[in-house]
Amino acid sequence: MAFFSTNESIVIKGVGAVSPAGWSAGDVVTKTLSGVALPFEELTREGCDHTCKVRRVPKPQERQAFARHPRLRRASAISRYVAAAGLQALGETRATAVREGELRLGIIVVFATGCVTYTRRFYEEMLDDPALASPILFPETVFNAPASHLAAILGSTGISYTLLGDGAEFLSGLDLAADWLCTHQCDGCLVIGGEEIDWLISEAVHLFARETILAEGAGALYLEREETPEANAVQLSQITPPLLYTNVGDKKLAPTKMRELLKIDSADERRMLLLDGLQAVGKMDKFEAAAWENWQGQRLSPRQFLGDALGASLAWQCVSAVSLLEEQYKECHSAIVSAVGLNQQSIAAQFSKSSRSS
Amino acid sequence: MSMGDGQHHRNQSGNRVVITGAGIVTSMGLGWQDNANGFREGRLAFRDITQFDTSRQRVHQAGEVALPEFLPDTQLSLRQTARMDRASSLLIHATAEALIQAGWSADDLLDEIPVALGTSAGAMVCGEEFCRRAIEQANQRRGQATRIHLYQAQHQALNLENAFGLQGPVSIISNACASGANAIGHAFRLLKYGRHQRVVAGGYDALSELVFAGFDSLQALTRTLPPRPFDANRDGLALGEGAAVLMMETLDCAKQRGADILAEIAGYGATTDIHHLAQPHPEGDAALASMNDACNEAGLNPGDIQYINSHGTGTPKNDVAEGRAIQRWAGAYTREVCVSSTKASIGHLLGGAGAVETVISLMALKGQWLPPTTTIENPDPICTFDLVREARDANLEAVLTNSFGFGGANATLILKKFL
Questions:
Q1: Residue after which a domain boundary falls, among B220, B236, B256
Q2: What is the pLDDT of residue A63?
Q3: Of A147, A159, A179, which has the smallest distance from its Cβ to B270's Cβ?
Q4: Is-catalytic flag, B311?
């Protein structure tokens, strides 16, 4: 983010989440703090000789009001997760302001795999008989369908991007949101990461590490620009440049370089909280684990308890970072979120509490 | 990010942003000259699809690109080249042309230049193959990890970085048919507000069986090729494939190195049409807002813009909604503004459309001519503007290009002759 002046801060004004732990951000935080992993189920399909471990989002205890919107009638699970997390983060008062045209909202939705369930279903129908493939499914396969549904629910006609990337892309979404806010392209911005489980993606993930427990859901942050944030307001204080895995950028070294780019004084680490992406799968964790091996501060690994929901998991790390700085980890002044993606980039963010009083 | 040394600060007035290189690959041809010649001649570029079996589809032709067997010179390894997917190939051909035109040196490319790309389907063909094998041979996993890796959009972006030694951050915007325009608009804002001095931006999509069947399922494909945007009897769109890439930089950066400036990007609008997931608002409300936003940013009035390269898909609802938006936007100037849809010649390139049509608009501005929609027999009554049905010379100072996508993603870009 290049546009912060000394008088402007990007403040996190709301968080939201849907996860295997439940339909609220609080559920993610509680599960992250619990130290106990959620149970998983075995996903099977006919003709396939192996199963995949997954953690699904439970059915909501009661039907939420937003779910009655006509746009969601035929939408896939991922659209409902994105909408639910986004609406939580925004809150009812601001949602009303958006509907009444008083708040110019930017929407950024980030996916690694996106609307995979309807895409796979449509493709199967097409293989059977292209002339009979469902015209209802196809529009829902488009990557930006969930962002479109959320915009329609909110009556938001402003700028909206759907970004694609590996599981570290959510932080680039936050970076973009900060750009939009600092250049006044919107008054507030929702950044949402989401994923849904389908046997197709479960089997794909297992090709890289069979121990991975795939999860699903969404996480959301709502950001605004403020000149004088309230004391202890949580702000986005830095995002490292993404370190790409190219011919000249080594995936093995990227996480360590990412940590260096944060420029954290080691003496200060004890007053900081690290939310890393470790999932207790050695093959997937090794480079990130090595980068943070000597971290002296407090540390939590949400994926170990919730599962790996790719981009959504990183959103849960951010949701946890913000929530924990505000509540359970008041002694910490900052939280670091570490993201080591599978095949694109390593990137990290720092959230800090404002020291200024309003 | 804001912290640390060497950060740029917000430039309130904004940098001027220029284009110094452009590359294009469509079914019309490979490169600027082939495409410019084709559009000036009003050629149509549709052929039988060879990329997949269409025997069970209702439509069998599209704007399929005749890709050469070999890639241009790149820094890719033999293994990377051998694994190249079609979408990446399209992108690399377009980028190679744009880089040569811009004259960026190898040292320039070490400068962490960002890459902003738009795509709707990425390498869907690889995803289809993964899915087909998983269904048909559930217990055979050989090659599947590679297929899923190749499928992901970041793979095409990283192929591009590796091919040319680029090292900057990657943004992949997937806003359906507006993706390419959004990527260029995103790059424009990165430069305007001083975050970077140079950006590589563009859009691409390759033909895919799944997407083809999807549009067919919606009965959105014309069964009476060629497509006839803005014709009263239009009956749908034709799909195409291709890529276009721009080398964009701040005016200061371009001037410092004495670059040949092709045009200035002056304005960008991005709005969301919330009317329906797959249909535009009949009055074109969001399209109008997108055009107005781009004009406001450019500091131009409709009367200052001589040509619109419309989204113009050839579907009954899109063309009327866009036509209505143009009428509301242009007001008293409606009869004078020239409008065409180049999709009539090459089809709808989905995530690549916005970038390809930006380059076609750039060709028009640079060459001072208007690309036509040659397939119109009976113009729709909505066409109260100057519908360009034959290529002709024109005095162009500023041109506008519209891209509207599924999900209501609307984007408008305005290019100005560089003075």
A1: B256
A2: 85
A3: A159
A4: yes
CB interface of A with B, residues 163-182, below 8 Å: 163-166, 172, 175-176, 178-179, 182
| Range list of H helices, A263-332 | 282-291, 302-306, 311-326
- Beta bridge mates, B61: B48
B283 Cβ contact partners less than 8 Å away, ≥ 6 residues apart: B321, B324, B325, B328
**Among candidate residues B230, B256, B282, the one where a domain is terminated:** B256
Query: pLDDT for A277-327, tens place per residue?
Result: 999 999 999 999 999 999 999 999 999 999 999 989 999 999 999 999 999
Tokens 């600027």 -> residue: B32
Cβ-proximal residues to A170 (8 Å cutoff; 6+ apart), any chain: A110, A191, A193, A219, A311, A314, A315, A318, A339
Concatenating the DSSP letter of every residue in B159-217 gives HHHHHHT--S-EEEE--GGGHHHHHHHHHHHHHHTTS-SEEEEEEEE---HHHHHHHHH
pLDDT in tens, B3-53: 332 233 334 479 999 999 999 999 999 999 999 999 999 999 999 999 999
Residue from B56, B217, B410 to probe the interface with A (highest A Cβ count within 10 Å): B217
Q: Any chain A CB within 8 A of the CB of B333?
A: no
Helix axes B209-217, A116-128, angle to 10 degrees: 80
User: Residue A65, Cα to own-chain centre: how many angstroms?
Assistant: 23
pTM for this structure?
0.97
Burial (Cβ within 10 Å: 0-12, 13-18, ≥19) of residue B328: middle
Tokens of A327: 């509540």
Residues B133 and B233 in one domain: yes
From B272, which residue of chain A is nearest by alpha-carbon distance? A157
End-to-end CA distance of chain A: give it in Å, rounded: 24
- Same domain flag for B322 and B380: yes
Q: Which CATH class is domain A9-226?
A: alpha beta
Q: Choose among B189, B303, B187: nearest CA to B248.
A: B187
Neighbouring CB atoms inside 10 A of A37's CB total: 15
B401 is in which domain, residue-wise?
A: 268-416
We report the CATH number of the domain holding residue B338 as 3.40.47.10
Buried/exposed B242-256: b ≥16 CB within 10 Å, e otherwise: bbbbbbbbbbebbee
The mean per-residue pLDDT over the stretch B256-279 comes to 97
Query: Is residue A6 packed enough to be buried (19+ CB in 10 Å), middle (13-18) or exposed (0-12)?
Result: exposed
C-beta separation of B382 from B230 below 8 A: yes
- Both B219 and B272 in one domain: the answer is no
Domains A9-226 and A234-353 share a fold: yes
Q: What is the mean pLDDT of residues B204-233?
A: 97
Element (H or E) spanning A206, and its range? helix A199-206
Q: Which of B186, B281, B348, B383 is catalytic?
A: B348
Structure tokens at A45: 């399909």
Mean pLDDT, chain A, rounded, equals: 95
Same-domain status, B102 and B125: yes
